[in-house]
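Input for the complex:
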Amino acid sequence: MTAPFLGDALGPRGRRQTRIITAISAAVIVGFIVVALTRLADKGQLDAAKWEPFTQWPVQKFFLLGLKVTVEVSLVSMVGAMVLGTILALARLSQTAVVRWVTTLFVEFFRGLPLVLLIFFCALGLPSYGLDLSVFWYVAIGLIVYNGAVLGEIFRAGILSLDRGQSEAAYSLGMGYWQAMLLVIIPQAARRMIPAIVSQLVTLLKDSSLGAAVAFEELLRRGRINGEFFGNMLQSLFVVAVLYIVVNFALSMLARRLEVRQRRRYKAGAIVVPGAGMDLALMGAQGESAEIADSTT
Amino acid sequence: MNVVFDNLDVFLQGMRRTVELSVLSFIFAFVLGVIVAGLRVSPVPPLRWASATYVEVVRNTPLLVLMFMVVFAFPSIGFTWSFFLSAVVVLTAYTSTFVGETVRSGINSVSKGQVEAARALGLTFPQVLRLVVMPQALRTVVGPLGGIFIALLKNSGVAVAISVSELTSAATQVGTDTAQFIPAFLGAAAAYLMLTIPSGFATGWLERKVAIKR
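Predicted:
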């Protein structure tokens, strides 16, 4: 697409209309912002006193430590989920039918559940069955099981997306199943899956905020505590949102860049996993449209 | 499993709430998302920027942050809504960004010749979008939209954190009351699957029904 919008360059009348609508819509948007700010000011939400705490180091440190916990639980869960996902993907491609069925059942079950249900089960249910861990691990277990199931599907799709000739060539060179898998298939499949993995990391990081609902002191929980303490909930949650957006936006950009680079280099779209959650549904849609666009040009 | 059958009314009530939350939010999110997608491809720069900003900001904010914002912070600027309404508002806003991005990808998949032909016939931009591009774009994204609805069914569980008595909340309540968490959560899990699996089938059916044979 050359034009930033749909369709050809407009004629003189279209350009004139566009200019008029541009002026009107800009005025409406500015008006909306002014009304919102006036409302905030009227309610005293723009007072210096509400924002002043964020200039103090102890408050900043409180938030940064929350962000650290969020990043920690996300990274630990991501690593755990990738290990689990690899096992599940290999088990689902196993030559033994029973192993395949059991893993399919496991994956479909946990992928179909809301993550919040799993986290609540871990935090409320596991202690009553004698499994006493810190709340960090309850949240992490929920995240690992759910994302492990999702990543398992991504990995399986990645392995299956490779040309059959690759494994056939490996077998004809005398390699065994595991040799072919480890030396030929997985190294190539892994590269294709990187954008999907980064995108899943964004989802996981956002989802780790569910820990706040089970008294896990990560970024969001700390934002609420700070808001209650200083009586500036709106401002505290705003700061929390900004921190999440900055981290996620950077990761999303990375995922998008990786996907574009990959498409150019390997002439293959993103790994598409139907029904894996909103972010992945989105990637699927984008991958599909790119393929359609490629075939029409 | 007696725990589930003894508390069947709690689960059914929760299931109803989950369906209400999801269906209402999806209808609003669909309308909003189509508008957002239309604005993002419009020839008017401020509208493009505004919709792009909306999508990137809302999409990258965790759902629970949005919920806490509406429930705990909005009353301080004069918006006090019920928990259910707050949940619908947040789920709508969050889901609309995903619908918007998906529909936009559908718009991009409509071949350029279609737009050029429509322009050559003298249609204006809104007409091109409404009469030519959208009908084709929406057909191609039925599958992804179904995926978004299923994700929305699951996301509606987050409303448990703001005291909406939906399915996750039913599981928590029954589990805490009876101290039998495994059956209670399995019951809720089964209920969720009873909602998501038929939704998947319905999506597949709809996809086939609206497909254009080329």
